[in-house]
Design a protein that fits this description.
The protein has two domains: about 180 residues, 3-Layer(aba) Sandwich (Rossmann fold), CATH 3.40.50; about 150 residues, Glycogen Phosphorylase B (Rossmann fold, 3-Layer(aba) Sandwich), CATH 3.40.50. It has 16 helices and 13 strands. The chain has a seven-stranded parallel sheet with strand order 3-2-1-4-5-6-7, with helices on both faces. It has a six-stranded parallel sheet with strand order 10-9-8-11-12-13. α2 links the parallel β2 and β3. The longest helix is centred in the N-terminal third of the chain and has 18 residues. The mean pLDDT is about 95.
Amino acid sequence: MKRIHLMVATRPNYMKIAPVWSALSASGSYELELVHTGQHYDHLLSSAFWDELKLPRPVVNLRAGSGSHARQTAAVLIGYEAFLQESRPDLVIVPGDVNSTLACALAASKLHVPVAHLEAGLRSFDDTMPEEINRRLTDSLASIHWTPSPDATDNLLREGIAQEKITCVGNCMIDSLLSFLPSFEAAKQWEAFGVKRGEYVVVTLHRPSNTDIPQRLESIVNALVSMGKSVPVIWPCHPRTLAALEKDGHDSRLRAGGVRLCDPAPYIGFMSLVVGARAVVTDSGGIQEETTVLGVPCLTVRPNTERPITCSEGTNRLVEPQGIEEAFLGLNGAGRGSARPKLWDGRAALRIVEDLAERGWASHA
């Protein structure tokens, strides 16, 4: 029976890997091991998701922690190489575009272990983003590329990746979303904040391009404080973002302006807030996808996105900090709903199982 390592490192990885784990387990064709790199080590950003998503505990935690890009990537590279030599798999599945994605792909490739990249081919065409570098390099190392949308497939083909290495399977994060949608609705997390469904805004911002540039962060804070005068604003705050806000006293200003800063929420709690929101202000990649399927207006505080399909077919709109409030006001009570991208139907993980079988990977003890 073939052994597969599935890597998780940060919050979005869990939602992408969980349905793949479930589908591969149900096939009975593989011995599976979950590898946690420890890139997210806060309980609310990592281990809290294991129980919610019905994932087993990882066989190893590499405890990479935080640090510079070089230190974090190096820590995962060293740790995962050592584990690969102890528990050599037949295939390594790496999701997304974080530092752990590249580090695990590099460690496996150098030991001649094939790599499958889940969410391959996404491109922002902005090389100032560390994630863009991680995506490109991981795709150059991978033997199997599972893309979430046709534009991602086209990107890979333009870069010279052979067609036979690419399969458009759809979006595994949406598999999780649709599976847990009844739980999001039932949680009614908005009630915990004393607000009504459809009458508040959810914020989630964590990218250094927004949090580490003082003028940009101040402009974001200005916009949210102004918005908070007319609509409740709820901000489950990433620890790194909260530290940036506290550094310049923005946290006090936000609270005084009525913006509700709170701890990061577990998956079901956070997505319940998103389901009931009037709009979401974010710089996250995955939330652009989730809001598109939910039909919730999304204002992405970035100059570009690696998920353009969420703008062309979904509810997403790119904005600069100074344009956040104007864009929100421009929604003018617009109704929900959007065209759901092709193959974002909750069956992406099943297509991955089928693809592996077609590639001759399925085996039985």
